Each structure stands twice: as C-alpha cells, then as structure tokens.
Amino acid sequence: MTPNISVDTKHTLREPISTFAILDLETSNLPAHNNNRVSITELCIYAFDPAVLKDNENSTDSKQIDESFSPELPSPPRVMHKLNLLFQPSMLVHPEAEIITGLNNYILERESKLDSNSGELIKRFLEHLPPPVCLIAHNGWGFDFPIVRKALNKLNISLPASTLCVDSLRGFMEIDDKLNDKNAVVEGNLPTDIKAEQIDIVDNSIDPVTQKEIDWQSLNENTPKRQILNRADALLKRKHLNADDTDIPANKRTLQDMKSRRQLFTGLNCASTKRYPPRGRYRLSHMYERIFKRPAINAHRAEADVIMLTKLIQHYNVNFVAFAEEQAIPFTEVVPIGGKTSNCTN
Q1: Within a domain: 346
Q2: Domain span at residue 41?
Q3: Which class for 266: exposed (0-12), middle (13-18), buried (19 or more C-beta within 10 A)?
Q4: Number of domains in the chain
Q5: What is the pLDDT of residues 18-61, one digit of tens each?
Q6: Where is the Exonuclease domain positioned along the sequence (predicted)?
Q7: Which residue, 53, 67, 207, 218, has most beta carbons within 10 Å?
Q8: Can you tell me the distance from the alpha carbon of 143 to that of 123, in angstroms, rounded to the nearest whole number?
Q9: Partner residues linked to 329 by β-bridges
C-alpha cells in the first residue's frame, strides 16, 4: 500500500479520494449543554471505495427532480470495511441521551473506556484503508469531527496526515441547490405568454420550400423563439446529449465529467461558512424517509445511522463524490470541541 501523504489545503487539483469512511457517534450528552464536555459512548465507521458511486452515476439527476419518485434502496457495496465500538463513558449519560440512543451508564459499565488502546485501534483501522481517506459524517463539521479530534488529542493520537473530512449535511444541501438550478434552466422561468407558445413540428413529408419562397427579411427581423420542453422530454434530450460523446475514451469522458461537476462547488468554502438547513428537512432520518419512502429503523444507533447515511450517499452518488473532492478539508484543520487546533502531527 502506498504511504499516506499530506494534502494541499488550497483548492488545487489533488489526488482523488480513495476511500469514503462514513462515521457516526453517540455521546453522553450534547456538548452545548455541558460546557463542551462530552463523552463518546459509541463510534461506527463503514468504509468503501467511492468509485462504486461513479459507476452508478446515471440515476441521481432524474431522481432529484421529482420527490414523488421512490427509488430502490441501494445495495451496500460488496467491499465494505466496518468498525463498531462502544465505550464506558467518563461522565453520567444524560437522561435524554439515554432515551434517544438506548445507552446508559449501567449497560456500558463493563465496556472499555476510550483510551490509548481504542484510539490506536481507530487510527490503525483508518491506516489500513487505501489513502487518501475522507471521513464523512452528517453535521460532521459541527459535531462528530470536533468531538473525535478532541478525544484523540487528549490521547496524543493523530490520524494519518492525508485524512480528509467532509460534512454530508452541507453536501446534500449544496447538491440539491445545484440540481434545482439545473432543472429550473430546463423548465425555464419564462413569461407566461412565452410558455404558452406552441412548438412547431416539422413534417418531412411536405415538399421543401424553394430559396425564392423564403422571406429572408422576415427571418432576419424576428428573434428566434426558444423551444420549451417538459420534464420528460428534457430528461430524454439530456440522455441523448450525454450519449453523443461515445467517440471519447471512457476514462477521459469520466475525468471531464468529474471536473465539470467539481466546478459546481468551487469557491464555496463550506467548512468555514455557516449555513442553516430548513427545519427538519435535512435531518438524517427525515431525509431517509423522504427519499426512500421507508421508515428509518433504529435511528440514533451509530451503526444504523451509518447505514442510512451510506444509502443516501449512494443515492446522490457521483454528485456527492464531486462535492467531497472539492470541499473536503484536512482533518488536522478541524478545531477540537471547545478548544483550539493542535500542532500535533503524525
């Protein structure tokens, strides 16, 4: 395996992400309710190659157009690395956290604490994966990553220098915005009188007019009218347009497509800017139920949440890969919860 390498923190073209590591935590309480003091009770990571998402890139755009569409539940990647750990908390589990997660001090009293052994286990697990590895968590920049960073800093443990991280909550919002913008262009936010115009259909059975019969003055003085397509016709046209590049080698076509998709998210600086989602709409369990039309089972159990997030990432597929490769930041840039960045290096 090639060694882990450092990453450029600027928005320059860097090595593509080799592994997505989907992360979820359960904790003893919300940090804001206890002066940023919090203890991890459960940690789960599922890791896989994002190339499996690029292989399924044909479905996302059409699925995002109509929320009444109910996509099939994606099958999990065949090659999947899994880590699931429970810890004895170092403080009292808040009653509300117990209700939500099903974990309390009593049932965790025989578990090991999050100590140097478990910290090294997490590190070795990530080192086992093909680098660069990108950690992904829902509200990760605001919750999971700062908590993990602080826990590892206390143990004087650093993750591989090439480790990246990205927030799926922000990613899903930005992707939805871009797809909605694209669909608005297809439908056209045009005046009602223009929308009402009929599309002329050319009948090839009619004899073509001669050059003398063409009113060139009329043609030159009239502004051409844009053809307005409904959603079904627009999707069909887009499919045909995408099929016109068959003479381009597949690998080059994929690189061109990824580059153009990444450009959609250039300059956003998502990790350093705040954006608040519509209330409840982007909550993990709500998203899962809204998109897949299925109940979210065992929500707020780390592994169940990781499974739901994995399926949502599969749903957004190549668009999420593009967002992650453009907006991921080095894990070393994450500010520990309630503290400052550490200069600790691997």
Answers
A1: no
A2: 19-190+231-333
A3: exposed
A4: 1
A5: 999 999 999 999 998 888 899 999 999 999 999 999 766 545 55
A6: 19-322
A7: 53
A8: 19
A9: 165
